[in-house]
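Sorry, explain these tokens?

***
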Amino acid sequence: MDNLDYGIIGNCRSAALISKNGSLDWCCLPEFDSSSVFAKLLDDKIGGSFEILVDESYSIHQQYEENTCILVTTFSDGKNIFEVHDFMPRYYSEDGGCHTPPEIVRYIKYISGSPKFKVLYNPKLEYAQGETSTYIKPNFIASLTHTVKFDTVFLYTSFDKEKVVKGEEIELKESGYFLLGYNEKIFLPDTKKIYLLLQRTKVYWLNWVERTPTYKRFNDQIIRSALTLKLLSYDKTGAVLAAATTSLPETIGEVRNWDYRFCWIRDASMVIKVVSELGHKNVAKRYLQFIIDLIPDKDEKLQIMYGINKEKKLTEETLDHLAGYKGSKPVRVGNAAYKQRQNDIYGILMDVIYEQLVKFDTDIENGEELWTITKGIVWIVNNHWQEPDKGIWEFRTEDRHFTFSKILCWVALDRAIKVAEIFGKKHKIKKWKVLEQEIRQDIYDNAWNEEKQSFTQSYGSPDLDASVLLMESYGFIQAKDPKFVSTVKAIEKELSHEGLMYRYKNEDDFGLPSSSFTICTFWFINSLFKIGEEEKAIKHFEKLLSYSNHLGLFSEDIDFKTKRLLGNFPQAYSHLALIECAINFSKKDSEAKIKESFVHKE
């Protein structure tokens, strides 16, 4: 496969990637950031996979069951047909709690004829370090390793266990199943129980989608993106992951390979803002609690990212025994960027706190804690906004006065003032307004480049940067302001390549990027739409949608030349920006229709 032609399944505890041919190539159990059970994605020789193999007479088609996270792969030679329904169980139990066991179910649905297939079942525990041995037991197939540390998984199946392990041909006469579990089952499954599990999980997802608004345009893409964002949320703590994978390269054969199975405050806060706009309160509430739990000391600075179980130390190491995706080394686990200072996270977090207070004011139980956090953020911004930082793109070398970071420091004050108004804390407002105006003026004085007729990447720099486009959506500047309009046009001229955007073009720590950062193209489309170039924006949007994979999923990057998906996958950033664009287009449509009906009534 030359593209990231994978579907994601999950249950808000962990996730798995399944190729368009039905091969389970990436999965970590029991949780998102555990070591891998299957990692063919990162090494197709030793990584391990769980494959359903058919002969060449079969064609293979894959799609999600509508409005669910159940992935259906159909194998057909015209007469002999079966389907694999892949999912991770998630449903409400009788006590009202959500049941999310660390399990993958592959329900094999018989359709017609006498289909035949073989199974390649090859788990490689602990990132395939050392040997994994597989044994047939009376009730299950057990795989274990104790090279690095002891670990086991259990496979339950209705098929002949000997044939499964040896990869011998299985003739399908009726529906059956595989259940891969991290824990040994107390009650043995059977096909009837597995079918019930499938239906319960289906009902959960259908109900979840039912609570999402319907939009006139691009509704299917909004729903698939919303479901994907939900799959990247971690129920236990409220964390939201940047992506479900590690070390998928931004460029094949290069070293921009990072572990994204963590909660970046920026990415997660942007996701929460979008998901709560879609009406899903619980995800937002859990995330706010995650933040509250992370900030015990009033003067404690926020890290840019945390482990999904609130870990503060995310030591980065490389797994040199793995070849990497398409040979792109190194494979990394952990992320050293957690030590970086990025001043924009305070504004992004303040924006989310304000949004939640406006949307769910009567439901916020943590008002006092949120007010304490608000005051703490203002204190930190007041003391540090004039210092340089690493910026949104995590330059690993020098610190600079990045425009985006300064704008978000302004956002922190602007939203803190609004929060103070909500809580009736008038004594703070006057004091904070002085600082808000000071930061605003500083940006106008130092970030505008007269020669480029644009706000630039950092103070005194001629380089342009797509992140500056967000100044309008954060309310720093009006869409029709001549300075914003000319910034959009300057960025298009300098950073656009066949409709795809560079983040920036100045060489960074690793040279000039050869792939487009997907979210930047969505930001650009949104900005075009806002400045009034609506037809052009929608045309670009539709073209960008055509670069998704066969299931409508996006990774972090798109190669400028080949248009193949690159970078970690699926990427929360890309899908939240897709939703924002699509909602803006739909809202404009609705406003136009309301105006039209109003004119007719006149």
